[in-house]
Fold this sequence. Notes:
The complex is a heterodimer.
Chain A: E1 3-6, E2 9-12, H1 21-28, E3 47-50, E4 53-56, H2 62-65, E5 69-71, H3 83-91, H4 100-113, H5 119-126, H6 136-153
Parallel strand pairs in A: 1-5
Antiparallel strand pairs in A: 1-2, 3-4, 3-5
Chain B: H1 2-32, H2 43-48, H3 53-67, H4 70-73, E1 83-84, E2 89-90, E3 103-104, E4 107-108, H5 146-154, H6 164-170, H7 174-178, H8 193-205, H9 213-217
Antiparallel strand pairs in B: 1-2, 3-4
Helix pairs in contact in B: 3-8
Amino acid sequence: MNSIRINKKKYTVNVDSEMPLLWFLRDHVGLTGTKYGCGVAQCGACVVHLDGEAVRSCVTKMKRAIGKEVITIEGLSEHGDHPLQLAWKDVDVPQCGYCHAGQIMSAAVLLRERLDPTDQDIDDAMTGNICRCGTYSRIRKAIHHAAELQKQKG
Amino acid sequence: MELYKEKRPLGKIRFTVTLSVIALFIIGFVSAFSDETNYAANEEIYATVKKDSIKSVEAFKKVYAVLQSPRCVNCHPSGDIPLQGDDSRLHAMFPKRGVDGKGILTMKCTNCHQTENTAGLKTPPGSPEWHLPSATMKMVFQGRSAHELAKQLVDLKQNGNKDLKALIAHADDGLVKWGWTPGEGRTLPPISHAEFKEAWITWLTTGAYAPTQQGLDGSNLKN
C-alpha cells in the first residue's frame, strides 16, 4: 500500500503517481496553506519539506513523495510558535501574504543549517522565493530576529 | 652575365624563405601535437593508445562541437552559477554550485529538478543525479578553447582523477546522455550521441591530442 507521512500523520495514497504533491496536499488532504504560484518551480510559493529538503511541490510528483516525510506550513510547529512564525508576526512581514508559507518553509531550512545566518546566507537561501509585494527587507529582518529567538529558546 | 649575377641573391632569398616556412611549419606541427605531459601520469592511457595525432585532432573537432553546445556548457560554467537556455544565460534565481555541485541550503538542484524532464516549455529539465561538477573539480567548458579543453579533459588533476577507462565510460553517464533528450524547447547537440561517443573514444584512444586553436577556429592563439 502506498503511503506518505504528512505533518507526522500517515496517509494512504490512492491517486495517480504523476500528480504533483501540491495537488495532493491541497485537494486531497485539505492542507491549503501551501500555495500554487507559477506551477513551474520558479517562484517558491509551494515550498514544503520533503525528508527535510525545501522542495517545490508544484513539480514534485507523488511517485517521488510516496514513502517519505512531508512537512507543510501547517506542520512546521504545533502551535504556530516556530521562531520564524513568531518573528514574522513581530516584524509584521507579509503584505498580501500569498508567498509567505513558501518563504517561511525555505527560511526554516536555512535556520536549521545556519544557526546565525549572515545576509549572504539569507540571499543565497531565499533567492528562489519571489515576493511580488517586495517584502524582502522585512523577510531579511525577520530571519535575523528568528535566529535570535531560536538561540534564546536553546 | 649581369642578369645572372642579379638572379643569384634572389635565388638565395627564395631558398632561405622556403626553408624558413618549412621549418616554421614543422615547429608548429610538433608544438601542436606534443602536449603529452598532461597524461604522462596516466599509465592506462599510455598503454592502450595507438597514437595518431591527425585522427585524434579530427575526432576532437566533433567532441568540441558537442561540449560547446548549450546542453553541455550550461552545467559546466566558468562561475559557480549554472547557465540555462540555448543562449546559456545565468540560471534564474542564481543557485550556487556548493561543495558537492548539488547546490546549497534551500537551493539544492533536486529541489526543482526531478529525475526526469518536467513536461512543457520553460519547466525544469531533469535526470537522476542532476548536478554541476563539484567545487574541487569544476571541469569548466564555458569559454575554454579547443586546446585548453582537450588538455583539461585528460588532466588527472582537473578531471577528477579519471583515467582512460573512466573517461570512456563517462560518455554513457546518465547526465551526459540527457543532453540528447533535453525536453521541449531545448536544441540538441550538433551530432547524435552515437557519433559523439565514437568521436570521443577515437580521440582518447589515438592519443587525446590537443589541437591548436588555429586548427579549429582560425584564431591565432596557440599552445
